[in-house]
Amino acid sequence: MRAWFEGEGFLEVETPARVPSPGQEPHLDAIAAQGWWLATSPEYHMKRLVAAGHERIVQIGKAFRGGERGAHHQSEFTLVEWYRAGAPLDAIARDCEHILRVAAAAAGADATALGVDRDFVRASVRDLVRAHAGVELAGDESAGALREKAVAAGAFAGTPPPAGTAWDDVFFQVFLDRVEPHLGRPGHPTFVFDWPAPLGALARRKTDDPRVVERFELYAGGLELANAFGELTDPVEQRARFVEESQLRASRGKATYPIDEKLLAALAVMPPTSGVALGFDRLVMFVLGATDIREVVAFADDEV
Amino acid sequence: MYDTSDIRKGLKIMMDGAPFTVVEFQFVKPGKGAAFTRTKVKNLLTGAVLERNFRSGEKFEPANVETKTMQYLYKDADTFVFMDTSTYDQVQIPDTTIGDSADFMPENINVEVLFFHDRAVGVTLPNFIEQAIVETEPGFRGDTATGSTKPGKISTGATVNVPLFIGVGDVVKIDTRTGEYIERVGRA
Question: Is the pTM here over 0.90, yes or no?
Fold first, then answer.
């Protein structure tokens, strides 16, 4: 994998593991480290390197997320994160196709059985939700309106979430109940593109439809392998989203983190860029056919 | 009340008015979204298995169910009579509740009886029982075709496919979940 990145002209970088401002995502919890935090991803510092003129950078390193433990989750895990300045999001999707091929070859896995010997399936969130849940997703409807539509379509497998549930929670209930079981079936790795704007995080809105953002998730072999953004480089909109996410965290009783002013300053001079984080442990699971992340790490969180 | 952090295999919860037990569970966090617990749950009344995804913090009523080890004594018309092995209390359970379990429930066997709101709603047999064959055709010496079987009846009246060498009085081990012969374990 390193050789592939080198051949593509990437510079391998290292960024700090302990940071004053970890990711603001409302559903990630950073682990405290002497007044600072262990980085939930290297994203902010890598963007600062892109803004400083490094057009193709990759990092293979540890990330830390508190409270995550499951067959596909460890609190400490390995991310492969890379950025291409001046490239469209689809260039990153192509990179992912190459990386999965490289990993399959390295593991001696059957590329045809894994479905990595051909172009991956590409689908949009709206099309998937319409096809599997019967819900017409706009992206700018209120949380209440989305809930009503989903109830009317019978899109919840169990009890519908209570009135007043946030947009993203309503969406993900439908997504898990109806859509995700169909994604990345064996032999059919799938890119899920065009996420609704409320799930935008650090992605820019699409110019031809601002209700969705330039983002994809890669599903393969029942695993969520990678998350990519056409990176938002507007420091004003990014600040507004950080403030909103921070308020959301506070309202849910979660720790709040200081806004990364150095990142916002860098965004102002950052070129249009696409980037992705790919879970390395899950990639190994995928090519080896492992069903629990414990099978691919020497020491699971509870064995350290 | 339970919430999603209490979910474990075997946890018994109320859902849609029926008692369920958790068969499988997994922590999931889709697409940078909130944490969910993906589960397979089994309806304790019907045996149907469903997949459900619970939002973190979602709350459940505990299912008012209890299992007791009870000894099956005898059948009386349409009911089966059981005795609680710790209190010696006797309860009667209608044959509609026992269903096909009766096939592999010989008298005096200990079973797990499931109570929902103090009413018996089902029995779970041991996975294996050992029973004497009470009726079967004689085997034919010299018939060496492998895999050949014949019907053999046990005391409950149920019939199991047994190898040709098994005769009346042989005790055989049976898997109660599949009704299959496992091996010969001795003579009655």
Answer: no
